[in-house]
């Protein structure tokens, strides 16, 4: 009767003896682990119930040993991955409890677990959407602010500097209005791809909205190097774009601020790079401008 009941529930159940060898799986456990009852019986739990940490891929603790040692139930964290018999992986939630006989003595362990991969994937998708621009998949303002703050903390410790680039496409509205928003969106995606291709993996490209992008050069120490990277960006963005049998070019204006010379705060560094970008536009577009004192006073009110 007990086995019929256990096979009727949705959760997977595995039971072991005191040595940690499996003596029972219900039907759900067979399905989730992909081990048959016959093959699993007598196997050490870690062979069938092979679990690792999702963050660092390190093996999890020996569940049987921990339960028997403490003689009380335990829950494993939700970042647990089960490696199944065929090598595939799923996220699980599980708990384990000691089994006692009528005299109160331990004689084994029962593990109850379930597949939470769908919920984990949904949570990961929501987290990604909360941190990235929907159109370009670039990190959004929130992520950029965190990364600049991290760069500030690192630069303070190392007595170093870094650069922030504020990029605005020249005459984007004309292209968007004349060729349509679909072409405009494709252009922004391609600009994002080109910007990512111009920088190092340690740097960050973020879309601020509209046709504005920000680049964090987190390991750039020299002004000459920042100028070289910025010139490369301008040249790369100027390469003609081809969408729906239409070919056109677009340039950009870029403003640059420096930590700690220009500012020591995330918002200040972004605002000063923005001010320098406006000066670059005033100088004829398709160029860049390092921030200079007083440029922020020339920025028109938005």
UniProtKB/TrEMBL annotation:
Positions of the GGDEF domain: 160-293
Coiled coil: none
Gene Ontology MF terms in the entry: catalytic activity
Any GO BP annotation: regulation of DNA-templated transcription
InterPro entries referenced in this protein's UniProt entry, alphabetically: DGC-Regulatory_Protein, GGDEF_dom, Nucleotide_cyclase, PAC, PAS, PAS-assoc_C, PAS-like_dom_sf, PAS_fold
SUPFAM superfamilies associated with the record: Nucleotide cyclase (SSF55073), PYP-like sensor domain (PAS domain) (SSF55785)
Domain PAS: 1-71
Pfam family, one: GGDEF
Domain PAC: from-to ranges: 76-128
Name of the protein: Diguanylate cyclase
